[in-house]
Amino acid sequence: MAKKFPLNPPHPERICWGCDRYCPATSLGCGNGADRTMHPSEMLGEDWYLYGDWDIEPADIPQQPADPALIARQG
User: Fold this and answer.
1) CB count, 10 Å around CB of 50?
2) pTM of the predicted structure, to 2 decimals
3) Tens of pLDDT, residues 25-40
């Protein structure tokens, strides 16, 4: 079973998010020359899971309706 994926970890820059191993950024176990995979919150902001099809259902955070202005810009 896969580990639960954290929505907004406190220090995402310290971990590689590329697989379920969650290696420290300074000690990657993926192979020689591998680079750290960023957490979506680092690239897309803290509300990254509200937009798109991530197949994540946060139990403790209520779903907000999508902002029509944001959808119009993406479309």
Assistant:
1) 19
2) 0.66
3) 888 888 766 788 999 9
Distance of alpha carbon 39 from alpha carbon 16, whole angstroms: 8
Contacts of residue 14, defined as CB under 8 A and 6 or more positions apart, other chains included, come to 24, 25
At residue 68, what is the residue type?
P
CB atoms within 10 A of CB 24: 11
- Note whether residue 3 is domain-resident: no
Which domain covers residue 27, as residue numbers? 8-74
* 15 phi/psi in degrees, rounded to 5: -130, 145
Residue 27 near residue 19, CB atoms below 8 Å: no
| Long-range residue pairs from 61-68, CB within 8 A, at least 24 positions apart, any chain | 61/7
Q: Where are the alpha helices (DSSP H) in 14-67?
A: 40-44
Instruction: Tell me how many domains the chain contains.
Output: 1
Q: Write out the H or E segment, with its range, that includes residue 70.
A: helix 68-74
